[in-house]
Amino acid sequence: MKEIELKIPNLGEAEDTEIIEISVKIGDKLKKNDPLIVLESEKAAMEVPSDFAGVIKDIVVKEGENVKEGAVFAVIEVEEKIEESKKQSAETIPEAPKLTDRAPQKIEKSLKDFSGINAGPAVRKIARELEIDLKNIIGSGRNKMITKDDLKNYIHSSFAIQKMEYADLKSLEDFGDYEIVNQSKIKKAGAKNLTKSWQSIPHVAHFEEADITKIEKQRKDLNKISAVKITPLAYIIKATSLALEEFPLMNSSLVDDGKLMLKKYVNIGIAVDTDQGLVVPVIKDVCTLKIGEIADKILIISAKAREKKLMKEDIEGSTFTISSLGNIGGTGFSPIINPPEVGIIGVSRAKPVPRFLEGHIKEETILPLSLSYDHRVINGVDAGKFMSFIKSILEKGL
Ligand code: CAO
Question: Are the CB atoms for 203 and 387 separated by under 8 Å?
């Protein structure tokens, strides 16, 4: 066995350079060409690979340290036989290509995969191996550079998000007969999306009630002459679209750390229950539609959903979602946000309620509404105002 000092290679024009990453630790077993350290000059970042197979015995530098050509940064123990056969010694470490010669090739490859991303070669290499898109990671290093820790945190959080909770089949088998059935593809995909949304978006639920006595009368009158059946949902969709125009924050998407996309159009996704699971077709440009037209669209998209005839354009581009349990029941529920949206309204069953009014009892039809919102974007006051706006539109009549 022989110990060899590993030295900083020729740095080209760069006088000195910074070690931005140490890719090994003492005791690591390396193969030839495994990455040792990453150097960064003003022009480029360069990974220094090992010219030897062996075990790292010592590391004499720290990340962030500036080094010059020829400085020892680590010691590796190699088998003497192999080392002799290569006719290489500590003094004759093959001259590494100049940083300025070599880096551009490496960077070129990186740019191809991760253009505009500030990350060292080691981070890029791991990301490429694990097929991670570095564009999704916000770097905490200098000039927003993505460090190895950023990558590790991202990997851990994505695994955590994707980890689904399943029952332990073995522990349940003893208690009685059972059968295993397959979930539909839609349900399986929905389960993943719902888990991801629930785990990554801080949800808050806000509840409201609207007196829809007036619009119920109007709706029933309209239904006597309308070619299509108009349900309360058409009014709720219309009122929500007007509220989304008034409160653009609710019609937004969080696109980056601290950056919001405020959309200038209102497309509302409607959760439709089908025998395959829940699907969310979209009614586009709702603000331009009249109640009868919205009712017509609800019938068309829900029929398409149930007959599995939805096309790509029918299910994309929603800016907000409404999930209506309609006459099924319930006094309120908190639906899960449909990313990249920031809010979703849940509609429960309207029912007649006795109300005291100037000493008299009066019957009103009360509609329970709930809003789940992304608390990173919306705060309680925004949510309260938004829902009060919808309530007042529904109570005044459309
Ligand atoms: N309160 C009381 N009655 C209601 C109501 C409400 N909030 N909403 C609808 N109704 C009534 C309708 O007026 C209709 O009455 P009639 O049969 O007497 O005319 C009846 O309930 C059935 O309505 P509908 O369900 O056919 O129509 P819709 O426009 O209300 O809803 C659709 C359409 C596609 C949203 C619905 O069929 C559906 O699939 N809902 C399930 C969505 C779901 O599963 N959400 C939960 C997901 S968890 O996030």
Answer: no
Interatomic CA distance for residues 283 and 169, integer angstroms: 42
Please report the atom of ligand 1 found closest to the CA of residue 272.
Answer: 39
Does the active-site annotation cover 156? Answer: no
pTM listed for this prediction: 0.68
The Å distance, Cα 326 to ligand 1 centre, comes to 4
Ligand 1 pocket, CB under 6 A: 229, 231-233, 270-273, 278, 298, 302, 323-327, 335, 347, 349-350, 367
pLDDT beneath 50: ranges in the chain: 88-113
Cα–Cα distance for residue pair 267/374, rounded to 1 Å = 18
The CA distance from 119 to 107, in Å, is 10
Q: Give Cβ neighbours of residue 111 (< 8 Å, ≥ 6 apart).
A: none
User: % helix / strand / coil in the chain, to the nearest 5?
Assistant: 40, 25, 35
Task: Answer whether 334's CB lies under 8 Å from 346's CB.
Answer: yes
Q: Which of 351, 289, 361, 286 is nearest to 325 (CA)?
A: 351
d(CA 134, CA 157): 14
